[in-house]
Each structure stands twice: as structure tokens, then as C-alpha cells.
Amino acid sequence: MFKRKELTDIYSAYLKTNENPFERQDMLTKFWTSNKTYKTENLQFLESAVADKDIQKLKFSIAMAFRDVLDKDYSDIFYKIILETWHEEHEDIVEIVCDFKEERYCDALLKIALEDKIYRKFDDENESTLRKCVNALVAINTKKSKDILEKLILTKNLNVRFALDI
């Protein structure tokens, strides 16, 4: 039987890899667990990353959360940081909160959708973060999220219409 690696060991290996995101991604694929093996540790890592405003630790924790099954226990921490500007992980966080389907994210999703220079610096002409905001609002599926979607449609942004398939 193999001994389970500690999250701190995985993080150390992650930090030792080249800054190339593809190499880091490659390294992390070895730890794809999808059974919440690291959930408790990773939630602590996330809390630490937020408290210290540690971008590398935040990126790592988000990547591990995707690999180890996200659930609503992550919701509060992502709600806390979705609009923070000390990091640039808004696209990944929007993708994550889409699965939570919680109305409390509606205002943050609208803000991210409208304030591209602050929250969507890396969006190209396809505006992937904007589209993910639209998808998250559709998934939330409340009166408030529908009202926000109507506001976004009124912007006449073609990517909003494309994401809504209208």
C-alpha cells in the first residue's frame, strides 16, 4: 500500500516546478484524487493563502480543489475572495461558484462581468470570464440572477448573447 502524500509535500513539489503553468499542471495531475482526500487540508491552505494574500498558494489550492472534488464547504472562502483584487484568479473562481448555485454570488458576478479592466484582464475577444459569469447566473436560476442577466443582455455584448445562445 502506498503512503498518501501530505498536501504540504505536494505544495513543495509544486513550488519547485518551473513557473511554466503547463509544467505545474502536469505535476498536479499525478494527484488527481476526486474523493476529497485533501479537502480538510486544502481548506486550511486556502484560508492561509487568503490571510497571507499568497497568490502561489491560492493558485495551488484552487488547482487542488478542482482535483479533489469541490463542494459547498468551499463556498464561504470563495465568497470572501471573489472580488478581491490582490489575485487574478477570478475566472477560476467564477467557474467554481457556478457549481455552488448560490444567490449571494449574483452581485459579485455582475461586477466581474461589467468591470473587465479590474476582474477580466486576461479575457480576449471571446471574454471567457464574462461567459462564465453568465453561465453561473443561469445556474443560480433565481429572480435576482435572471434580473442581472437581463441587465447584461441590455449591454448588447455579443458574448453575453452567445453564452445565452440567443
Description:
- It is a single chain.
- With 166 residues, the protein is mainly α.
- The protein has 11 helices and no strands.
- It has helices at 7-16, 21-29, 39-52, 55-67, 75-81, 90-100, 106-114, 116-119, 128-140, 143-154, 158-164.
- The termini are far apart.
- The mean pLDDT is 90.
Give a short summary of the structure.
With 166 residues, the protein is mainly alpha-helical.
| Percent of residues in β-strands | under 5%
Helix count, DSSP H or I runs of 4 or more residues: 11
Q: What is the helix content?
A: 55-70%
Average of the residue pLDDT scores: 90
Biggest sheet layout: none
Number of strands: 0
- Tell me, what's the shape? elongated
H-E order: HHHHHHHHHHH
- Global Rg: 17 Å
By helix and strand content, what is the structural category?
Answer: mainly alpha
Span between N and C termini?
53 Å
User: Residue ranges: pLDDT <50 for 5 or more in a row?
Assistant: none
